[in-house]
Amino acid sequence: MQETIAAISTPFGEGAIAVIRLSGPESIAIADAVFRSKRRAAELPSRVQQFGAIVDESGVLDEVLLTVFHAPSSYTGEEMVEIACHGGILVTRRLLGLLLERGASAAGPGEFTQRAFLNGKMDLTQAEAVMDLIRAQTDLGLRAATEQLEGRLGERIREIRDVLLDLLAHVEAHIDFPEEDIEPGTAAALRLRLEEVRGRIASLLDTADHGRVLREGLRTVICGAPNVGKSSLLNRLLGYERAIVSEIPGTTRDTIEEVVNLRGIPVRLIDTAGIRESHDEIEQQGIARTFQHLERADLVLRVVDASRPRDAGGWIECSTHDQEAPLHIIILNKNDLGEHPSWAGCDGIRISCLESTDTGGIEPLADAIFEQAMGRGAKMGDFAVAINARHQACLKTADRYAQAAGQAFVDGLSAEFISIELRSALDAVGDVVGRAETEDLIGKIFSTFCLGK
């Protein structure tokens, strides 16, 4: 029999209320053992809250609201109970301890959602979307997670699986009748449908970078020579004074990292030490860190002082030669002092970081960052489906097998060879939604969840 699990589902700390969950066959019986009210927990219909008290041997522990969710109409698909108690650290711990004493087991990270997946309440893409929803930092990330939780990605995966299943059925029909080869016209039609499948896979693979940005943020490094306005740009984008700004060169000696919401995407801004020749040991370490961050950057904001001649305005190389250069945006700063003629024709964003009324530079910069991250002409609605790294690996595998199946058609190989490739592609696509996941992989995915979810 599946054991009954319990956990505190609200964040650790003090609050007005906390929620403790029970899930499993003994949930209601365990709740009845500690709950006192006009009606027992076993008598409650689903989704109806009942006021009462939690009691132990010493008396009333807390006054609570208790809700029962009968299987299969619950989050996990099992019998579930939720107890809303006062949000003190001690009271929630004592209440959870009481439930564990009455026979519940402590839930592991993500175990409630894992049970929902195993009980068919959601596919694996929806389960992963639960943590994306919790961790979303922007409206766009929240929307993408919500769409995935509602099953939009799973729906597109199932459409691909249905076509592959249909193709496999056609091929295996010829295996059952070996005296009949696949006719050229039939093979061409099947190849065409296979290319359509590969096109759908490619469309999903194109969203991988967008998904990474929405989940992890766009790693954006602000670099340049000393005193060109890097820290001022950081403060301007954040909207408050985060970094010290000084006319003394070398003020910023270590990196400063903050996250800002720009056009719906989380941008991880990293202010770095000014790049120059220096004999100061601490400043040298800061400059070394600058180049380390540049090697891992998604986007580089290269800041220059446009009020000075180009050869003296801080035009330096911000990328290493042995790495593929990331995306760059040139920031022509200090526009309030006038632009030196040597910068004429330079393609960049012109701005004054110290002029609070200069919205003409900040708005185009925010637009340029969004376009670099998501593509020119992109809109918020374009990223309702955004796959993660695991989905990407599965779909790349599926595409390789689909390509091999298509080549088998071209080479005139037997239906048995084609069937093997199609089955492998079908399995790889099924891995995305969890149709063929191993127990170890499922455990790894849900171990990243928070307790109580």
What is this structure, in a nutshell?
This protein has 453 residues and is of the alpha/beta class.
Walk me through this protein's architecture.
- The chain has helices at residues 27-34, 89-101, 111-118, 124-135, 139-149, 152-176, 184-205, 208-216, 230-238, 281-295, 359-374, 389-411, 415-433, 439-446; strands at residues 5-8, 15-23, 35-36, 49-56, 59-69, 80-87, 105-106, 218-223, 256-262, 265-271, 299-305, 327-333, 349-350.
- The chain is built from 14 helices and 13 strands.
- A 7-stranded mixed β-sheet has the order 3-4-5-6-2-1-7. It has a 6-stranded mixed β-sheet with strand order 9-10-8-11-12-13, with helices on both faces.
- Helices cover 44% and strands 18% of the residues.
- The protein folds into 3 domains: 5-107, Probable tRNA modification gtpase trme, domain 1 (Gyrase A, domain 2); 126-207 and 387-446, tRNA modification GTPase MnmE domain 2 (Four Helix Bundle (Hemerythrin (Met), subunit A)); 213-382, P-loop containing nucleotide triphosphate hydrolases (Rossmann fold), CATH 3.40.50.
- Helix 6 runs antiparallel to helix 7 (184-205).
- With 453 residues, it is α/β, with parallel strands linked by helices.
- Strand 1 and strand 2 (15-23) form a beta hairpin.
- It is flat, with a radius of gyration of 29 Å.
